[in-house]
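Extended Data, panel c. Modelled sequence:
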Amino acid sequence: MIVGIGDTEECQPPPEFTHPLDALDPSVPAAGPVLDIVTIDGTTTADAVAKLEDGHGPSNGILANQSLAVEKSLSNSSSSSASSSDKAIDAVNHVIEVTKRTRTLEKIIFVTSLSSLILMAYALVVLQWLLPYYYAVSAPLLIGLRIGLYIKYKWQYFLIDFCYFGNTLLCIFLWATPWLPEFFLVLFGLAHGPLAWATVLFRNSLVFHNTDKMTSVYIHVLPLFVTYGIRWYPDRLSQHWYTAFVSTFSEDVTYMFIWLVAVSFASFMFHMLLYLVVVYAVCRPDKSYLNSYRYLSSRGGWILTMLSVFGQRHKFLMYSLFNCFYCILSLLFTVVCYKYFVVDCIYLAFIVLVVAWNGAAFYIDVFPIKGFGYNI
């Protein structure tokens, strides 16, 4: 979730996870040959791009920019050989083919994400027994796909953040001890507390064509839905599971405070100390590796202002204290959610609206400018 480790110096924001099309970014000088206009069956590259649109509207300037970049590069050396011209034509054709494949993949991801969200909503309201199965299949699959991607981009230290620790605990509960009430209370606190509020802190967004953004939403939201279902519909969730879920819930204030708040916070602190040992004492990654601390402290805004209150030297100390304060506040609120069904329903709706709003902001404010090349 939040806990990270790093130097107190400023760091760069995470590298953008871009598509192959961005290899020909117009801001990067193109290396290649040289004609004023590249002819493909009598058409310019811009015409070829227009053909690719096939009546589906503008390409947000992405394809047009790529083609203009190629043409600009070609116009600088009109005396080049025929073989160089062939290479130029091949480069333009490659851009078009990569774009076709990329757009097809984006459409598949969009439809899959939307269908999955509809299924999850239906399970939450009608077929509650489907929730543990949905989580048991989707969570390991999405996290497994993310592991390979994050290692490639040197983001693997995100994979030992608290959200993955919380998801691991939920998997253990589902498959090993679904009848244990104290364990469930700890998970309820973590899922409704720091995991769910991370959607606000990290601006998780429902961007349906982006696997990485949808995975971030699922990792933080699915535990919330599963623990909600177990709390309020234990018999329905147990209907087709291999054994019955815990179905007796004590509402004694002291009991709830101990397990929902105190023990949950202790598990958060345990992970935090373990993280510090693994990352800071054992691995000691250089600045080319990204983690939550480096990511949040590089994005600016109110978080960076808060971390810098006592100067650059104490930024990481402030970051650690912020983690503890954030966790305590979010866990205290879970007592109310655990006790009152209506409050829990409103809370779920609020979290969904947050990620939906962030997704809308992406599609309205970012996507028309950045297009498919912008993913982080």
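The two ends are 17 Å apart (CA to CA). This feature is highlighted in the accompanying rendering.
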